[in-house]
Amino acid sequence: MTLLFLDVDGPLIPFGAADRPYPVYPGPRVPGPEHPLLTRVDPALGPRLLALGCVLVWATTWLDDANTGLAPRLGLPALPVVRWPDEDEPPGPLHWKTRPLVAWAAGRPFVWVDDEITEADRAWTAVHHPGPALLHRIDHRHGLTDADFTALEEWLAAVPR
Question: Which residue from 140, 10, 138 is spatially nearest to 62, judged by alpha carbons?
């Protein structure tokens, strides 16, 4: 089954833009300390992500906090969490998440949704990952949009199951 690696800041928590501030959504009260940015998370994204039919995986520095603070707001179950290596990535054009995500996927088809993906990440993945992969950059000002979901759905429809 296709993996969908989810970043939080930017894709799920939009930062807003000068011409279009981020929206604010009501949502369920989550136990524990309230994160000040959680009202930016659209609870309707959870069902849309589940409907993609992928194995959802947190690919964020939020780590387990994504399951305790964010998953309930989205109506998601606890998801697997990518554990990042402790060593520092050498400076360069490649995003520090790229190598660990390709290793985590272990040849399986995957989608990576993040606001910091570049062509360098796509090129490296194409050489080092034997399976299909979509590295989809999200506009951090707006977060996941209908157009993003359309792109994901179209790519997933073309991937052999």
Answer: 10
- 14 φψ region: left (φ > 0), alpha (ψ -120 to 50), beta (else): beta
Question: Edge-to-edge strand order for the sheet containing 133-137?
Answer: 55-58, 3-6, 110-114, 133-137
Asked whether the beta carbons of 3 and 109 are under 8 A apart, the reply is yes
3-state secondary structure of 17: strand
Parse the chain into domains and list their residue ranges: 3-158
Give dist(CA 55, CA 39) in Å, integer: 25
pLDDT tens by residue, 66-107: 999 899 999 999 999 999 988 776 678 999 999 999 999 999
Q: What is the rounded distance in angstroms from the CA atom of residue 121 to the CA atom of residue 126?
A: 9
User: Could you report the per-residue pLDDT of 106-123, keeping only the tens digit for each?
Assistant: 999 999 999 999 999 999
Q: Alpha-carbon distance 96 to 103, whole Å?
A: 12
Name which of 83, 133, 87, 94 is nearest 113 in CA terms: 133
Q: What is the number of other CB atoms lying within 10 angstroms of the CB of residue 39?
A: 16
Residue with tokens 């951090």: 140
Q: How far, in Å, are 15, 98, 148 from residue 153 at the CA level?
A: 24, 22, 9
